[in-house]
Backbone:
């Protein structure tokens, strides 16, 4: 297979990213937090989850055929552009109402995910990718950078990665990524992630970090996997409570901090932690099988604005590897993928070969 023909952003990228994250956490567990490395149960459980995801993705890849895709061209360029600008204005208003920049203030950061932000972020994320997919122009890349900057001021790395990562994947499938542009984009993503994470950590009251930005990444991976390590003996003990919190009210990550570590803190617990705590190994199996099949199916029907939708879903699934699927707002992005599948249902056929 020629290098140029490799699809670098097919769903199996999730498996590669999980294994890289596991390796980083293992290294971090030695160097920055633990006397002993991660337990074998963690490593084996993560590898099992990867296998289940891969089975789902591969089965859909070779058993399902999509004859054609339905056109979703119903949004004008002016309307999409207006919605992008409205999202940026809303996020700017959000920071004005907060009274400062959350990136530099941990108190403001804890209150930064307001209802305004919950509208502004997904609106910008969806519309900027649709704008690129449907009406690509180099000038719109400035909006991508501007959006990453404005939402990055909220103090969350995930926003920066969500915007830059999904835009990069959209441009990749549009074949608009030259080697030069690709290097620039990857450099911006890497620097943006490191900068936001490091600056935000330095602004936390009563904490004094001596790790440099790169060391902090390994530390975070180790700590997140440590949380999952503590979840494994508790598997299935919350009986769906975290899932109910995701689709109602409350803070699932804070609940995990209270339940697992017994103190009031918002914790990330990997892609596997919440479902394992709720439903044990069976729940983890179902989740990973669903994600593998779902992502591969959306990947098969990524045409037109579907390219943007797939890019958004893949990017946030990759983000979930650390943070965990505990945000209803991001599940809404999966809903967009479901709508895409339903609209193309008549074109999806079982491969007889």
Residues:
């Amino acid at each position: 297979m020629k290098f140029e023909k490799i699809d670098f952003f097919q769903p199996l990228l999730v498996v590669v990213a999980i294994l890289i994250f596991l390796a980083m956490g293992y290294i971090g567990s030695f160097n920055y937090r633990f006397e002993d490395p991660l337990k074998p149960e963690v490593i084996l459980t993560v590898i099992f989850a990867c296998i289940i995801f891969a089975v789902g993705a591969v089965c859909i890849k070779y058993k399902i055929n999509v004859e054609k895709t339905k056109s979703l061209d119903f949004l004008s360029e002016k309307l999409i552009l207006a919605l992008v600008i409205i999202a940026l204005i809303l996020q700017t208003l959000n920071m004005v109402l907060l009274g400062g920049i959350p990136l530099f203030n941990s108190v403001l950061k804890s209150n930064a995910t307001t209802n305004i932000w919950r509208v502004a972020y997904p609106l910008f994320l969806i519309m900027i990718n649709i704008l690129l997919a449907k009406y690509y122009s180099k000038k719109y890349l400035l909006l991508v950078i501007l959006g990453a900057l404005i939402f990055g001021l909220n103090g969350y790395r995930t926003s920066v990665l969500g915007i830059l990562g999904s835009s990069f994947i959209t441009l990749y499938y549009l074949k608009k990524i030259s080697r030069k542009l690709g290097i620039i984009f990857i450099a911006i993503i890497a620097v943006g992630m490191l900068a936001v994470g490091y600056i935000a950590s330095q602004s936390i009251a009563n904490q004094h970090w001596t790790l440099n930005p790169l060391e902090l990444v390994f530390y975070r991976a180790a700590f997140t996997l440590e949380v999952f390590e503590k979840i494994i003996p508790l598997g299935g003990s919350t009986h769906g409570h975290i899932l109910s919190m995701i689709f109602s009210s409350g803070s699932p990550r804070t609940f995990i901090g209270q339940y697992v570590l017994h103190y009031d803190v918002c914790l990330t617990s990997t892609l596997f932690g919440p479902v394992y705590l709720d439903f044990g190994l069976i729940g983890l199996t179902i989740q990973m099988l669903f994600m593998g099949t779902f992502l591969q199916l959306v990947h098969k029907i990524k045409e037109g604005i579907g390219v943007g939708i797939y890019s958004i879903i893949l990017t946030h699934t990759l983000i979930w590897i650390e943070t965990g699927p505990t945000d209803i707002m991001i599940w809404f992005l999966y809903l967009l993928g479901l709508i895409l599948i339903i609209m193309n249902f008549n074109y999806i056929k079982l491969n007889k070969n």
Q: What stands out?
A: Residues 118 and 241 are 23 Å apart (CA to CA). The two ends are 22 Å apart (CA to CA). The mean pLDDT is 86. The longest strand covers residues 64-66.
